[in-house]
Amino acid sequence: MTSQCILELIRGSGQVTVHLDQQDRGEMFSSVVRLTLSVLVLSCASTAFAISAEVQALCNRGEEEMLDGNDQAAFSTFQEAIEINPTDGLAYSGRGRALGMQGLLEPGLLDMNKAIELNPDNADFYYYRGLLEEALGDYAEALQDYNTAIELNSNLADAYLHRGLIQQWVIGNYDAAMESFNSAVDITPNNPEYISTRGKLYHRTGENDLALQEFNTAIQLAPDDFLLYEYRYFIYGDLQDYSSAMNDICHTIQLAPDYGDGYINRAWLYLQTEDFELSALDYTKAIELDPGNPELHFFRGNVYAQLENYEDAVADYDIAIAQVDNHGPLYYRRALVREKLGDSAGAREDYEAAEHYGY
User: Fold this and answer.
1) How far is CA 232 from CA 136, 196, 205, 278, in A?
2) How far is CA 31 from CA 90, 131, 219, 229, in A?
3) Domains of the chain, first to last
4) Global pTM?
5) Are 115 and 90 in contact (CB under 8 A)?
6) Residue 8 phi, psi (nearest 5)
7) Mean pLDDT (whole number) for 169-174
């Protein structure tokens, strides 16, 4: 999962995926926490809590280990700090985050609860507990913790960002979400993640001119972030500005040549411009990167059918059906192609299967 992937937005439908498995939730928590470690002031040396020099040194070392991605070592370091001083909230917070980064969300949550019990006025603790709750799908609790974090520290931009995501995608209150995103941008005006997140909300509400402005700004600030070009491609696609969309998706692929969605999105764009051979080539590249994806064989089969390359179309449908044998449209598409090949019996069987599976 990416850093903004607290909620996976299903493109174009506005749905929210909240059924992440444990590994995905851990990866999401890890990516978000890693990004904010260098922003939030969490070093023991900067706090007002009276702790021993030894515990302070351990906490600082644990923070550095997390920044370096060595979460297991960080866990051990914070564990050592807790053994020396079992009433130190920062040590529990650090251990809780280290657990969360390893996908151990519920044990991490217990540590964050302990940290807050020991230091109830620390805004960062509520923010990190909110991340854990959000990763677990406990959105009401996460929202409450983000609100508390903001009450304690009105300059905690990441808390506004994640509160806004919940307000937008879980509650559906776009006005409240926009206020939260505005606050995040006001606090940190040159943060491309905050700006692009606000741009996505503009896109969601159909304000595409404002969305483009936001993504133009975000790309100026982070010109090597391929996902920014990809999302601007979607906006241009909605505006049917296929030339600009093509420029952006090609730039996405140039920056991330092993990113399969880049080829899938460009293949779709080639379909809009009826460049079927180029579309088939991009689906082929996407299949090379993700060979076990039956959906890609279905899509390429459809393109082969457009090219009247019926044998290859049937071969792709066969592969897809072998993996997903209860999908009506697959049988229907294969039936059409089998008719073109003169296979009346096979086509009849597929039409019956398509009807059986509700298509």
Assistant:
1) 30, 10, 15, 21
2) 20, 11, 21, 20
3) 1-171 (1.25.40.10), 258-359 (1.25.40.10)
4) 0.83
5) yes
6) -90, 115
7) 97
Contact 308, 289 (CB under 8 A): no
CA gap 217, 231 in Å, rounded: 13
**Where does residue 135 rank: exposed (0-12), middle (13-18), buried (19+ CB within 10 A)?**
buried
Q: How far is CA 66 from CA 55, 110, 278, in A?
A: 17, 19, 44
Which tokens sit at 24? 């995905």
pLDDT in tens, 93-147: 999 999 999 999 999 999 999 999 999 999 999 999 999 999 999 999 999 999 9
Q: Which of 244, 292, 246 is nearest to 265 (CA)?
A: 246
Using DSSP's 3-state secondary structure scheme, residue 17 falls into strand
Q: 145: closest CA among 187, 184, 113, 182? A: 113
**How many residues are there in the chain?**
359
Within 8 A by CB and 6+ apart from 90, the residues are: 42, 44, 47, 49, 51, 59, 115, 119
Buried b vs exposed e over 308-324: b needs ≥16 C-beta within 10 Å? ebbebbbebbebbbeee
Nearest C-alpha neighbor of 259 from the set 302, 209, 219, 225:
225
Q: How far apart are CA 56 and CA 223, in angstroms?
A: 38
Q: Tokens 């909110």 label which residue? A: 130
Cβ atoms 58, 90 nearer than 8 A: no
272: helix, strand or coil: helix
Spatial separation of the C-alpha atoms in residues 16 and 167, rounded to whole Å: 12
Helix (H, G, I), strand (E, B) or coil at 165: helix
Sign of the CA dihedral with 306 first, then 311, 314, and 316 last: negative
Q: Pseudo-torsion of CA 222, 226, 232, 236, nearest 10°?
A: 140
